[in-house]
Amino acid sequence: MRMTLSTLNWRRREMVRWLVTCATELGVYALDSIMQNWFTLFTPTEATSIVATTVMSNGTVVGLHLDCHQQEKLASSARTLALQCAMKDPQNCALSALTLCEKDHIAFETAYQIVLDAATTGMSYSQLFTIARYMEHRGYPMRAYKLATLAMTHLNLSYNQDTHPAINDVLWACALSHSLGKNELAAIIPLVVKSVKCATVLSDILRRCTLTTPGMVGLHGRRNSGKLMSLDKAPLRQLLDATIGAYIN
Question: How many domains does the chain have?
Answer without folding.
Answer: 2
